[in-house]
Amino acid sequence: MDKLSVVIITHEEEENIVRCLDSVKTLADEVVVVDSNSRDRTVEISKNYGCRVFIHDFEGYGKQKQFAVDQASNDWILSLDADEVVTEELKTEITNLLKAKNNAFAGYRIPFSFCYLGKILKHTRADHLRLFNRNKGRFTTVPVHEGIVTEGAIGRVKGKIIHYSYRDISHHLQKINTYTSQAAVKNNQDHKSYSKCWVAFKFPISFFIYYFLRLGFLDGYPGFLWSFFAAFYGSLKIAKTIEMEAKK
Fold first, then answer.
1. CA 126, CA 119: separation in Å to the nearest integer?
2. Per-chain mean pLDDT for the chain
3. Tens digits of per-residue pLDDT, 190-216?
4. Beta strands of the chain (E only): which ranges?
5. Other Cβ atoms within 10 Å of 220 Cβ, number
6. pTM for this one?
7. Per-residue pLDDT for 143 more than 70?
8. Could you tell me if 143 and 177 lie in one domain?
9. Among residues 8, 108, 147, 173, which is most buried (max CB within 10 A)?
10. Is the same domain home to 150 and 71?
């Protein structure tokens, strides 16, 4: 049976890290935590759980996560954020995959459900490549919206990760502000440009996709707010890109 390393990057995650670590304590052969100078109890809690903890200045999400992968002892990697939880169904599925001989896949995409305003959204979903063999894949080094690139076929599992994404609306807005600024910097570095009209059109188009086509309306009020802020994110990212270009 192949062994599994769970890797987590953290910064002041004492409110989330216990829930995350509890969900993988019977799954992982080791847990690697890379912390970017937290001032709360994140490091202390992680060490108490027996994690291998490394302190490393934050260099961007992609580079930080790849640094964590490089510290792992095992080839199979499950990359988690501190506000994510592995379900029992997924733990069983991963265990069975690691027992299989001659695994043909370089990695696996995992479905995500979001817990937002105290409710797990059943219809607002995503999936991400998070389980992979590090001999066949690695993280991209972009500063935001990093991903994993692999050499080989990608499979898909059924078990979910639950993402406890935002504490409240204020926290959601703080994250939107941070991520859209980082995305605008990347857009300018890549010489992307947008028409000002697209700021206005992007919002209703995105909202229609999230709320109606992706069935956000079936998740009630939390589904409406999630769709609203997801659409707002897209428009704000474009507006900041235009503003940054004008300042040049």
1. 16
2. 95
3. 999 999 999 999 999 999 999 999 999
4. 4-10, 30-35, 52-55, 76-81, 84-86, 107-116, 119-133, 137-139, 148-150, 154-156, 161-163
5. 12
6. 0.90
7. no
8. no
9. 8
10. yes
**Domain CATH code at residue 99:** 3.90.550.10
* Domain assignment of residue 116, given as a range: 4-163
Secondary-structure percent of the chain, ordered helix, strand, coil, rounded to 5? 45, 25, 30
**Which token pair is 106?**
């370089």
∠ at Cα 192 (186, 196), nearest 5°? Answer: 115
Question: What 3-state class would DSSP assign to 216?
Answer: helix
Residue 211 Cα distances to 37, 156, 180, 229, angstroms = 38, 25, 21, 11
Quote the DSSP letter at residue 248.
Answer: -
Report which of 96, 94, 124, 99 is spatially closest to residue 109, judged by C-alpha positions. 94
Q: How far apart are CA 8 and CA 24, in angstroms?
A: 11
Amino acid in the structure at residue 176: I
> How many residues make up the chain in this entry?
248
Residue in the block written with tokens 């999400």: 61
Q: Give me the number of domains the chain comprises.
A: 2
What mean pLDDT comes out for the span 239-244?
Answer: 96
Task: Indicate the Cα dihedral angle 115, 175, 51, 135, nearest 10°.
Answer: 90
- My answer on whether 14 and 51 are in the same domain is yes
Instruction: Quote the CA–CA distance of 87 and 85 in Å, as a whole number.
Output: 6
Residue 54 pLDDT level (bands cut at 50, 70, 90): very high
